[in-house]
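Budget justification aside, the reviewers requested a transparent look at the raw inputs and outputs of the sequence design task funded under Objective 1. We therefore reproduce one unedited record. The lines immediately below are the structure tokens for a 180-residue chain.
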């Protein structure tokens, strides 16, 4: 039995590879990226701030933390994302929560929204679809469509609890969009 075609999240491994190949074609050569990553290893001690909203990363090498900006207000909640992108380059982004559109968002924006809205996590599950593990810093996706696919996959696999959880998560983001 061979499992070489299945990624860790249950999706075809080529899906992540294809996305990464497209990113490579748009920018640096593979050799340049390897040399860049090898020469720019960055480690963040991101577990020390008490006001941290979220910290983590994904399977593409994206690693970052989120915290509220100093000028964040109740009317304009603003989050700072700081870390290392999938190419090993440092980044810092300012995210205005009220401007996030889950139908066309980055994974960093959705993590900020997840943290701000307080979407509950279930037994270690992320509230975001598993497919986000293949996303780079600037990749945008329709998370609502991704949720529909994730829910369908979980139902197909007879994972009723997981399907219900992703349904709950998706509803939380629909509620956010409807309040705007």
């Amino acid at each position: 039995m061979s499992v070489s075609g299945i990624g860790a999240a249950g999706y075809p491994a080529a899906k992540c590879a294809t996305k990464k190949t497209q990113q490579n074609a748009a920018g640096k050569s593979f050799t340049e990226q390897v040399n860049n990553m090898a020469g720019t290893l960055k480690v963040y001690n991101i577990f020390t701030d008490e006001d941290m909203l979220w910290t983590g990363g994904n399977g593409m090498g994206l690693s970052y933390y989120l915290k509220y900006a100093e000028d964040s207000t109740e009317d304009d909640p603003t989050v700072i994302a700081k870390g290392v992108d999938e190419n090993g380059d440092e980044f810092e982004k300012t995210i205005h929560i009220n401007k996030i559109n889950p139908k066309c968002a980055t994974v960093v924006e959705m993590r900020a929204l997840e943290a701000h809205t307080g979407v509950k996590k279930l037994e270690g599950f992320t509230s975001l679809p598993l497919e986000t593990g293949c996303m780079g810093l600037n990749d945008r996706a329709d998370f609502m469509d991704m949720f529909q696919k994730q829910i369908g996959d979980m139902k197909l696999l007879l994972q009723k609890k997981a399907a219900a959880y992703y349904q709950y998560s998706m509803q939380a983001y629909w509620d956010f969009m409807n309040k705007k």
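The longest helix spans residues 160-179. The CA atoms of residues 9 and 131 lie 7 Å apart. Computational costs for records of this kind are itemized in the attached budget.
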